[in-house]
Design a protein that fits this description.
By secondary structure, this protein is α+β, with helices and mostly antiparallel strands. It folds into two domains: 10-28 and 41-163, 2,3-Dihydroxybiphenyl 1,2-Dioxygenase, domain 1 (Roll); 178-292, Roll (2,3-Dihydroxybiphenyl 1,2-Dioxygenase, domain 1), CATH 3.10.180.10. It has five helices and 16 strands. It has helices spanning 10-25, 58-69, 120-129, 188-199, 250-259, and strands at 48-54, 72-75, 83-88, 91-97, 110-116, 133-141, 145-151, 157-163, 178-185, 202-205, 214-219, 222-229, 240-247, 263-270, 276-281, 287-292. The strands form two sheets. An eight-stranded mixed sheet has the order 2-3-4-1-5-8-7-6, with helices on both faces. Strand 15 (276-281) and strand 16 (287-292) form a beta hairpin. It is globular and about 50 Å long. The protein starts with 9 loop residues before the first helix and ends in a 14-residue tail after the last strand.
């Protein structure tokens, strides 16, 4: 699975994501909803439990994702910049924020995954010791918990979250919910070792039809994410996390996304486990994956399911 390259945008993406995380850092009284209501005692370190979008046009993004996935939205109180919570059947499913534009006017909207941890501050020390950069220092928020944002040693941006209400259970995602995440990077071996150090993942090699590396990250007997090699023939493409939403039909979702202003980066195609996957860019350019889950499939688009 190889989305079209976005050349020369790594620096602008980091600036954009830094601006979005600054929204939280500057507004500690944000009324963020808990991940779970009622609260749970479940903890799943290494599981991606939240995803946020930094976008150049919040209203346009709300129209697009509402039309495509049936999400509804609620504005967040206490935010200094436009910030909304996306809801699916009344439950929080994602955050959307519109940072100020960089001075040069260039920006790359992107989805940011947050990985569960039991100790944000200890993880920060470990991440920095192994080559990560802190983009947003650990900070606590009422009802939500403590979170931080980092760039891994190869530059891919990710968040961590210690939820005060527990972590979502390990069960199959409903349509409209996040179901999978893939890290696209230059050196899958080194990057998977970095995340293994932080989250205790088991790392499994997934042989593919091509010569590029495909690795699976799992914990507690569940596949959490995959780490795939960026195409070597495209040297300027930066490492990044690509998050997938479950849809009932990848082809139908892609057709609908196009009518709503999206562009198609990867056309719907069958993955190694029989499901259909596609990658689109929303009207502002943020890439997002679409996964049509096959109930009989043994795993995910790259070997597992959250």
């Amino acid at each position: 699975m190889r989305p079209e390259p976005r050349r020369g945008l790594r620096l602008f993406m980091l600036v954009w994501l830094l601006a979005s995380t600054a929204v939280l850092a500057a507004a500690p009284r944000l009324e963020l909803p808990p991940l779970l209501e009622p609260a749970s005692s479940e903890r799943h370190p290494g599981k991606i439990i939240w995803v946020e979008l930094a976008t150049s046009d919040l209203e346009s993004a709300r129209r697009f994702y509402g039309g495509l996935l049936g999400w509804t939205f609620r504005d967040v109180r206490g935010a200094r910049l436009p910030f909304s919570i996306a809801l699916l059947n009344g439950e929080p499913v994602a955050g959307l924020v519109q940072p100020r534009s960089p001075r040069n006017g260039q920006r790359q909207p992107n989805w940011l995954p947050f990985i569960a941890t039991s100790d944000v501050r200890a993880l920060k020390q470990q991440a920095v010791a192994h080559g990560a950069r802190v983009l947003s220092a650990p900070r606590s928020y009422p009802n939500r918990g403590e979170q931080a944002v980092f760039a891994d040693p190869q530059g891919a941006v990710f968040g961590v979250l210690q939820s005060t209400s527990g972590d979502p259970p390990d069960e199959l995602s409903d349509p409209g919910e996040w179901i999978w995440s893939t890290l696209l990077t230059r050196d899958p071996g080194k990057d998977s070792a970095f995340y293994q150090t932080l989250f205790g993942y088991e790392v499994q090699d997934l042989p593919g039809e091509d010569s590029t590396a495909h690795l699976l990250l799992s914990s507690e007997g569940y596949a959490r994410a995959s780490v795939n090699e960026l195409p070597p023939e495209i040297p300027k493409q930066y490492p990044y996390w690509l998050c997938f939403v479950r849809v009932l039909s990848a082809k139908t979702a892609v057709d609908k996304a196009k009518t709503l202003g999206a562009s198609v980066l990867v056309e719907p195609h069958e993955d190694r486990h029989g499901g259909l996957v596609a990658v689109i860019a929303d009207p502002q350019g943020a890439p997002i994956g679409l996964l049509e889950w096959v109930e009989s499939a043994a795993a995910s688009p790259d070997g597992g399911a959250q």
